Fold this sequence. Notes:
Number of helices: 9
Shape: flat
Largest sheet: 5 strands, mixed
Strand order of the largest sheet: 2-1-3-4-5
Low-confidence stretches: 1-25
Mean pLDDT: 83
Radius of gyration: 39 Å
Helix content: 40-55%
Amino acid sequence: MRCLAGIFCALCISTHVCAGSKPETKTQTPVSTEWILCITAFDVSALPTADQGIGYLAARNLVQPLNRIPHRIRPSQEFAFYQSAARSSARSAASQAIVQKRQARDQLIFEGKPEWQYRRDLKEMESALTDLEQALKKVDRDPIRVEARPAFHLAPGNLEGTFPDPPRSGDEANFCTTHKADALLTGTIRPLQGRFVLTVRLWILGIGAFVYEDRIVFSAEDVAEASHELSIPLIAELSGESPAGLIVRSTPADATIAVNGVLTESGLEQDLPAGPVAVEVSAPGYETQNVTLDLFPDQLSALSLDLRPQDTFNFTFQTAAPAQVYDGSRYSGETPLSLTLPQGQYEYLYFERLDGRQTAVVFDGTNPPATDSMVLPLRIPSASPKDDLELRRRKFYNSFGRFWFALPVAFFINGLSSAQATAGNLFPGSVAKNPALTYTSIGAWILFGLSAADMLYQTFRYINSSGQGAAALVGK
């Protein structure tokens, strides 16, 4: 039996040793997986009070293009900073754990436990301390894995339209720490001969200095375009990737081209951030085309789009006397007028004479009428306060409020009257009848009925008025 027991123990020990001899391979989780930029309020102190709102517009217009940056490629200096910071943080945490464990060990002798229990707890403490010291050595020995391509994000406040005041010179690091940001973008706007000069500067915590500066001159009407032009090289700096090139050519050549919602010209080369872009090409009389394509750093992409002419038909509009015709907001001529209208879409047409008579129609190009002409009556728009839609809207809401006031009042008074009648039936002679309460209950229900009728009437008038003056739909 002793022999068998010895063999069994030897096998167990052998199995344990073999299992323990297999090295454990653990993938270290990277640290610093996000990179946050905080856009500060732009300094507009040099501008007149009436123009200082331009600073907020310029900062807000940078949010959308910068928020499309997917990630940042860290430069070597920034990577080393975050690796050193991660090691220092890990070493501090490990050292603090050792100090706390040593303090707990030293307190064992004062706990008054039996000697056998003291020795047991002391042995556990010494073993835990050895593990913590090994962990500290591991922090000093093993490399810290820092994410080389952290996800790029703007500060949450920036996405909500909030821009904190910029820090004083030399206080940029504290600002980033307070706002949990890895970098800050600040700007200054000053006047220049009736225009404005916007200067933006980028300060990065991992480098500890301003690393980028750019400026642009613009007018008050071109704030959005100025922010767009500034964003292109700024995105390249923030992402760490070179910009991409794009040329869009269209037929017809005068088509309207928008790249990510920004207008450009046919055949014009432009620098854009690498990644997906949305291109829309449209022209009067042609079908609009929308294309999404991916751009790559340091590569020029060319896109050619030939718009297909829309299917159209001619329709003649006539009025009793000549009237000016507007297709949307565009002046088209005077009646009688033959218009070439596109099939498959709606067109809003407005007719007006010099004496004030007018009308409007919505032409249904998806289901055009069988005829190719029509005569439109013109009317003088009513200016009577009784026909005012806003007045009827107020009357409707007033009647609605009166209805919901009368309903609970009627139920409450009816409940009191019913309770008195029930008590009089149960205890005849003990509860005096109160005819006034009964009459009040009847009056409350009459008042409720009148308020309900008035609400229905005002609802009908409001709905009827809201449809008056609307453009007629012309179609089959």
